[in-house]
Structures are given as structure tokens and as C-alpha cells.
Specification:
The protein contains two helices and five strands. The protein is α+β, with helices and mostly antiparallel strands and about 80 residues long. It is globular.
Length: about 80
């Protein structure tokens, strides 16, 4: 299943200069359009765990949300940064 993460290069006051974004609640239309043309399963979804709506990866077959916690929070997760 394809999944998306968004990197923000050159972030002020960060040592590495690049941040991996998660729990994104708003995106500029141009950015969202670019992503969804390539991965249409990246959608705004409500999360009970986060108690908010955010853009998340979803299953292309059943629509189940793959929450950012499970992709970003633990060593070995696809988008976990060890920096």
C-alpha cells in the first residue's frame, strides 16, 4: 500500500533543517492536489486517538485510516526519524 509523508526542508531553529510533518490538519490546495493525484488515499479523516481530523493514509480497499502514530512514533516505523 502506498503511503505519504511530508517533509519540510530548511525549518528555522532545527539542527537538521528538515522536519517530518505529522498530524497535518490543513494543507494548501496546490499541495493537497499534487499529493492526491499521486496517492488518492491520502485523506482528511477524524481520529479518535488524536481527537482531531488530520490528513492520513488510508487503505485503498476498505478506507481504514493508518494513523500517524503508527507510521511516525516508534523506532522502525516507516517515517520515524532517528535524528
Amino acid at each position: 500500500m502506498p503511503v505519504v509523508t511530508i517533509l519540510a526542508p530548511h525549518v528555522k531553529d532545527t539542527e537538521g533543517g528538515i522536519c517530518i510533518l505529522s498530524y497535518i490538519e490543513n494543507l494548501p490546495h496546490e499541495v493537497l492536489s499534487y499529493i492526491q493525484k499521486r496517492v488518492p488515499t491520502f485523506k482528511l479523516r477524524p481520529s479518535k486517538m488524536a481527537k482531531a481530523k488530520y490528513y492520513a493514509n488510508t487503505c485503498p480497499k476498505c478506507g481504514v485510516m493508518f494513523g500517524d502514530f503508527f507510521l511516525h512514533a516508534e523506532p522502525g516505523d516507516p517515517f520515524f526519524s532517528d535524528r
